[in-house]
Structure formats: structure tokens, C-alpha cells
Specification:
It is a single chain. By secondary structure, the chain is mainly alpha-helical. Among the domains are: about 140 residues, 3-Layer(aba) Sandwich (Rossmann fold); about 90 residues; about 100 residues, no CATH class; about 140 residues, no CATH class; about 60 residues, Winged helix-like DNA-binding domain superfamily/Winged helix DNA-binding domain (Arc Repressor Mutant, subunit A, Orthogonal Bundle), CATH 1.10.10. It contains 38 helices and eight strands. The strands form two sheets. A five-stranded parallel β-sheet has the order 2-3-4-1-5, sandwiched between helices. A three-stranded antiparallel β-sheet has the order 6-8-7. Helix 7 packs parallel to helix 9, helix 28 runs antiparallel to helix 29 and helix 36 packs across helix 37. It starts with a helix and ends in a 12-residue tail after the last helix. The relative contact order is 0.05.
Length: about 775
């Protein structure tokens, strides 16, 4: 309301259009703003409904009918309207302009001839007039994913609307610990759309939230039964969407329904590859954005992404099935996902643009999952094995071990006769995920079969990795006499083939030396591995080598050096999205905290480690496990069982960002102890690269973060949606290699990235 009022109060903005999908609340917003601004328009505020007007030639007469009813004279409607409005400070509220867009020039003529008149228009598409200022009306704010606390859930605008409309059915409804999570999920599935929330809440009289949530796998059939005094298009969610769909050109309808195959959004490149006719991708997508059936979002690296609200996507999917195009379009989508995954697998294997590919595959995770499910459903066994085999590194790095292992097992079972190159890679991937889930009884046979298959196929790089993982399995159970020669064999194969893996293998040889108590050899191998990884620009391997060197430094009593190593490794692991690395970084920070006498902090960090390990399905392994367990024993002995347990529990409920900030503080040198921002600034700066350059918008967001603004306040200041701000914050944290807003502000301040005082945008 405040933002729209500011636009209307601008002397240069006499035409403001509220855009957005059906059911987002454009009309209500327009009416409320008009009512609040009544005093600014002393000569009148007129509301003109245009939903029933289908002929653009009748728009001006419809406005005249409201503003200047016929007085018995024979003047044309246009003349009567101009005479009535001339010299008056008035506001026209024109509702539902989308189906009469060709009348926009006529409206411009009216405003040009009446310079003291303003117009507030609601439309699902822009009018595309030079004087127009548009304001996309966002959905209501939603609870954060995973929110269960009543006060957190109840603070959401979407939930407040649900509660109000549930009470309006006549039942005694209130938010409580039992229904908070289901209500939050219902509102999320409604995309925060007020109309959808109201239609869902209307069922509260007969369906409690848990039952309603279960029925919302398919949303549209439930979202019916709006009040009879609403227009027909607003009595069901399907009708609201159909109203927009029916206004599309025929080629736009084709593109709209084909885009339904994308889950959680898509890039322009993806849309053109899967859904667009030749040469129509960009133009068609721009039109669908313009008509509020698509929304634009910020993607990784500031590449634009586009997405449908889920209620809209469900409608589009119905249209796709009805047109008989579902099979070929989904097949094209799966083929695009396979190509993306195989490019990503190659990049992740050689650590090329590691963080960028992690982000890109992360953004497409919903699409990749949909493609895997589609190939499994259609029986494309070899293609399914190729896709799951291409994804296992991504699943590992992002902590989706159970998901990846389940799909790889299914694909291997379905494709026993797949080419050896495909099958060998998938076997090694399945064995790797099984190992990191602690199931070596299954992992070792899979890795051995993968090794034999890859050798037959002449795949030296895959064979080297199979040897490497068999050695890791031996190392993790403390069998160093088996691990060392296998690492040496893998190292020789890596060097002979030129495949990326030398640094990781050298680091593991250092871990074996550490496990044997030979800290001098361990440090030498770790430094050698670090030099190779830095030379190759391999951030993942740099992080692993640093973590091992941190353990060695701690074992030798050099806790300042250990803290530096752990902090830099943790920053890199967070930047690359390697969640197992983050887990070990937190545990390393706990070791440092114990040595510095910060026992409560150590217990909190170990509690966070346990929770993260449980979440991603990864357990401690030897020899690191012994160091972590010793730290826990010391902290427990110094704090006592009760205090240790309380601190451990507190760590278990910290967010990942909070835990990383706590670890940065623990690792910092004494001079900056207690200042996570300064600690992050000293360690992260070494990891920053030219790719960390921020966009101008990200600098604006970062400046407001440094000023202490919340995401909602930043959104208001920059006229962005909170979701867009959230994407900007995530991107800049990744570029800076930090996990918290405090650390980002400190790094930016030290690097001189912030806007000058007084130039930061603000409300």
C-alpha cells in the first residue's frame, strides 16, 4: 500500500498499473489505496469495473458511464468524459484491463487531455504505455520452510489470512502447536495467493488442517466454492487462471502448457530447448511474464530464471495432457536434464567452475528429480542409469546421499546390460554414497565391481576413483596397511591418465600418516596436496587439504594455525556447498574451542555437527573421529553432564549459518575472538577470486545488510519481492564465501565493497 501510494504521489506517475496473476489481490489493493488517498483527490475517486467489457472500443464509454452519465444531450462519450474531468484533481480506478489492452492508447489520450487526473489500473498484463509505471503485486509472505513454532508461523501474512477466513466459516479456529505446521504447508502450496488461501480456508468447517494438507497434492479440485457475490472467474482457482489463459494467443497457449514440465523454474536456454517453437522462446516468455503467468527470478550468477506459481503450473499441466503433448515434451525435458547433468558431472569431476556448477545443478534440482522419475516411469533404463550416474557427485556434495543411493540402486537393477562405461561409473557412484552412509558391507562390493567394469571399458579415471574409494573405506575403519597401497595405486593411475585426483589422494595419504601418528609426514603430504589443489584452482580439494592440515596442527599443539586452517576450509566448503566439509569444519572448530578453554562453545558446535551429520546421512570416520571424540570427552568432563547436554542440545537447533558463525569465532585468533565478522574477514579474503565480483544490485543489498536491514526491509527499500532479496543474499554470501550476514558485512567493509554513507537506498 505504501509503495503504490508513493508511486501515485509522484507527479510524473499519473498512470500506475498493478499487475499480477489472478487471485493475488490486485483489486483489493487498488480499492484500499484509493480509499486511503481520497483526500489527495478532492474532486473524486471513481471505480470502473471492466471485467464485463470485451470490446476495446467500449472502454472509454464505460468510464464515461461512471464518471459522466448521459444528461440527455447527444455529445459522444469521449467528449462528455473530457469535459467532466477537465481541471479536476481526480483518480480513476480501472479494474481488469487485461482483456481490453488495445484500448490503452485511448486511455492515454484521456489522461493527456486531463493533466490533473490520475489512473490506478489493475491488469494481469502491462498496458505498455510510455507514461505507465507498473507495480507487480507479490503474493502474501509465507512462513520459512520448516517453521513449526506457533509465533513464527503466525507472523506470516498468508497464515493470518487463512486463520481469519477459517474463523469466518463459523468454527472456533486458532493456531496451535498441532496445526501450525500443516497450516504453514497449506499456505505454501497455495503460493501465498490470497484467493487460493481463502478458497482453501473455506473448507475448514469440514476438513481440519492435517486432512486438508493431505488432499492438496492436487490443488485445483479443492479450490472451489468462492462467495456467490464474487465474479465467476474468482469463485474457483481454476476459473481465475483460465481467465488469463483464454486471453493468450494460440502460440502463447502452446508455450504456456509446455512450460508446465519444469519444476521450480527454468532458464531461457532450457525453455527454448524444451518448450519453445523455433524463434519464439524469448518473445513468448516475455509475453507470459507480461501477462503474469510467469514470474522472473534471480538465478545463480544473476542468470534470469522464470517460474510458474504451482497452482498455475497445475493448470498448465492439465492443458498439456489434454493437448496430447505430455509424452514428447516430458521426453524433451528429460533429454535436456541428461545433457545438463552430464556436463555438470564432467565439471565436478575435474573441479572446473566447481561452485558455479554446484549452484546451477542446485537450482535445477527439481527438474532433475522430475526427469529421473519420468525415465523410471517410462522404462528408459539406460537413459535412467546415465542420468543417475551423472548426478551422484552432485548428490554427494549437497548431502542428498539417501536419495542418490536409492535412485542409483533402482537404475542399476533396471539396466544390467547397459554399456560398461555407463554401468562402471554408476557402480562406483553407488558404492561411494553407500560408504559415506556407513554401509561398507554394500559399498565395497559395488566399488570392486565398478573397478573391474571400468578397467574392462578402459575408463582409467573411473578405475582410479574406485581404487581411491576402496582405500578411503579401509582408512575410515583404521586399516591403514590396506589403505596406503591402494592410495598409492590410485595416485599412479591418476598421474598416468592425467585425470584430476592427485591432490585428494595425496591428502588422504597424509590422513593415513596422521592416523599412524606420523605428524611430520602428514604435514608434508598435506602441504604438497594443498599446493597442487591451489595450482589447479580446485576449491573443494583445497578445503580438504586445509582441514587435514588443521587436524595435524592441532595434534602438534599449534592451535592458532589449526584455527586458521579450519576457518579457511570451512569458508571454502560453504562457498562450494559441500555439506560434509562443513560438518567436519564445525568439528575442527570444536577441537580448537576445547584447546582454548571454550568448552560450552565446543559442545554447541559438536551438537550442530551431530544434527548436520544426521540430516545429510554422514557419520564420523577414523582417524578424525578419534580427535572429535577426545574433544567431546574433555568438554563433557569440564562442563559436567548436565551443562554439556544443554549446550549440545542448543547446538542441535542452530541453523547452519549460525553454526558456521560460531565456528568462525572459535577459530579466530585471540585478538578477534568473539567477533565472527572479523574472523571471517581474515580467513575468507584469501579464498576470494575475481568471480566474487558483486553485481550493482548485490552491492545495494549488501550495503543494506551492513546497515542492519532485514530481507523484508531491503525488499521495501529496493521495490523487490522478499523472495528476490533472498536470492540476492544467497548469491552474495556464496560469492564472498561466507555463511552469515554479519560475516558478509565485515568482509565487504574490509574490501571496500559497500556504497558510501548516505548513498545506500532506503525507504
Amino acid at each position: 500500500m505504501a509503495a503504490v501510494a508513493v508511486l501515485l504521489g509522484d507527479g510524473d506517475a499519473r498512470l500506475v498499473t498493478l499487475t499480477g496473476p489472478g487471485g493475488v489481490g490486485k483489486t483489493r489493493l487498488a480499492l484500499r489505496v484509493a480509499a486511503d488517498l481520497g483526500a489527495c483527490f478532492p474532486d473524486g475517486v471513481w471505480f470502473v469495473p471492466l471485467a464485463a467489457v470485451v470490446d476495446p472500443e467500449l472502454v472509454v464509454p464505460a468510464i464515461a458511464q461512471v464518471v459522466a452519465p448521459p444528461d440527455g444531450g447527444d455529445r459522444p462519450a469521449e467528449e462528455r468524459l473530457r469535459l467532466s474531468l477537465k481541471g479536476r484533481r481526480a483518480l480513476l480506478v480501472l479494474d481488469n484491463f487485461e482483456q481490453v489492452l488495445p484500448a490503452a492508447p485511448a486511455l492515454a489520450d484521456v489522461l493527456a487531455s486531463c493533466p490533473t487526473v490520475s489512473a490506478l489500473v489493475t491488469s494481469r498484463a502491462r498496458l505498455r504505455l510510455s507514461a505507465e509505471r507498473t507495480f507487480p503485486v507479490p503474493p502474501l509472505d509465507l512462513p520459512d520452510p520448516g517453521s513449526r513454532a506457533v509465533d513464527e508461523v503466525g507472523a506470516s501474512g498468508a497464515v493470518r489470512l487463512f486463520i481469519a477466513r477459517a474463523k469466518a466459516t463459523g468454527i472456533d479456529f486458532s493456531l496451535n502447536p498441532e496445526n501450525a505446521a500443516p497450516v504453514a504447508e497449506i499456505c505454501r502450496r497455495m503460493d501465498g495467493l490470497p484467493l487460493a488461501i481463502e478458497l482453501a480456508a473455506a473448507w475448514s468447517e469440514v476438513l481440519p488442517p492435517t486432512a486438508m494438507q493431505a488432499r492438496l497434492q492436487k490443488r485445483l479440485p479443492l479450490l472451489v466454492g468462492g462467495p456467490r457475490d464474487l465474479p465467476a472467474r474468482q469463485r474457483t482457482m481454476r476459473d481465475a487462471i483460465a481467465w488469463s489463459h483464454d486471453l493468450l494467443e494460440s502460440d502463447e497457449r502452446v508455450l504456456f502448457r509446455r512450460l508446465a514440465v519444469f519444476v521450480d523454474g527454468f532458464t531461457l536456454e532450457a525453455a527454448e530447448a524444451v518448450a519453445a517453437e523455433e524463434g519464439r522462446g524469448l518473445r513468448g516468455i516475455a509475453s507470459l511474464v507480461d501477462k503474469s503467468l510467469l514470474r522472473r527470478e534471480a538465478g545463480p550468477g544473476d542468470e534470469p530464471r522464470f517460474a510458474m506459481l504451482e497452482t498455475v503450473r497445475e493448470f498448465a499441466a492439465e492443458q498439456l495432457a489434454a493437448a496430447g503433448e505430455e509424452t514428447p515434451v516430458r521426453a524433451a525435458h528429460a533429454a535436456w536434464c541428461l545433457d545438463l547433468a552430464e556436463c555438470g558431472a564432467s565439471a565436478l569431476r575435474v573441479r572446473s567452475d566447481f561452485a558455479a556448477w554446484q549452484s546451477r545443478l542446485g537450482a535445477e534440482h527439481g527438474n532433475l528429480r522430475a526427469a529421473v522419475a519420468w525415465l523410471a516411469e517410462t522404462g528408459e533404463a539406460t537413459e535412467l542409469l546415465r542420468l543417475t550416474g551423472a548426478l551422484w557427485r552432485f548428490w554427494y556434495f549437497r548431502g542428498h546421499l539417501a536419495e542418490g543411493r536409492r535412485w542409483l540402486g533402482h537404475a542399476l537393477e533396471r539396466a544390467p546390460d547397459a554399456p560398461a562405461t555407463v554401468r562402471g561409473n554408476a557402480l562406483v557412484g553407488a558404492g561411494t554414497l553407500a560408504h559415506y552412509q556407513g554401509d561398507d558391507g554394500r559399498a565395497v562390493p559395488l566399488l570392486e565391481e565398478g573397478l573391474a567394469t571400468s578397467r574392462r571399458a578402459g575408463e582409467q579415471a573411473v578405475a582410479a576413483f574406485a581404487l581411491y574409494m576402496l582405500a578411503v573405506a579401509a582408512e575410515d575403519r583404521g586399516d591403514y596397511d590396506v589403505a596406503a597401497p591402494r592410495f598409492e595405486e590410485a595416485l599412479a593411475l591418476y598421474r598416468a591418465s592425467g585425470a584430476r585426483g592427485v591432490s585428494m589422494t595425496l591428502t588422504h595419504l597424509g590422513v593415513v600418516a596422521y592416523g599412524r601418528g606420523d605428524f611430520v609426514e602428514a604435514a608434508a603430504l598435506g602441504e604438497q596436496a594443498l599446493a597442487v589443489a591451489r595450482a589447479e584452482g580446485d576449491a573443494f580439494s583445497v578445503g580438504f587439504a586445509l582441514h587435514t592440515l588443521g587436524l595435524v596442527a592441532a595434534a602438534r599443539g599449534d592451535h592458532t594455525r589449526a584455527g586458521d586452517r579450519f576457518a579457511e576450509a570451512l569458508a571454502l566448503d560453504q562457498a562450494t556447498g559441500h555439506r560434509e566439509g562443513i560438518m567436519h569444519g564445525l568439528a575442527g572448530a570444536a577441537i580448537v574451542a576445547v584447546e582454548r578453554g571454550r568448552f560450552e562453545r565446543a559442545a554447541r558446535l559438536l551438537g550442530a555437527v551431530a544434527m548436520l551429520g544426521e540430516e545429510i546421512g554422514v557419520r564420523y570416520a577414523l582417524p578424525e573421529r578419534a580427535a572429535y571424540e577426545r574433544a567431546a570427552e574433555v568438554a563433557r568432563a569440564r562442563l559436567g553432564e548436565s551443562a554439556f547436554g544443554a549446550a549440545w542440545a542448543a547446538g542441535g537447533v542452530m541453523t547452519e549459518d549460525e553454526a558456521v558463525a560460531e565456528a568462525a569465532t572459535a577459530c579466530a585468533a585471540t585478538a578477534v575472538l568473539g567477533d565472527p565478522g572479523a574472523a571471517a574477514a581474515t580467513t575468507v579474503s584469501r579464498a576470494m577470486t575475481p568471480s566474487a565480483v558483486l553485481t550493482p544490485r548485490e552491492v545495494e543489498v549488501l550495503t543494506l545488510i551492513a546497515a542492519g536491514r532485514t530481507d523484508k526491509e531491503i525488499a521495501a527499500a529496493l521495490f523487490l519481492s522478499p523472495r528476490t532479496v533472498h536470492h540476492h543474499v544467497a548469491n552474495l554470501l556464496a560469492k564472498l564465501g561466507v555463511g552469515t550476514r554479519t560475516a558478509a558485512a565485515a568482509v565487504a567493509q574490509a574490501a571496500g565493497l559497500l556504497l558510501p554513507t548516505g548513498s545506500a537506498p532506503g525507504p
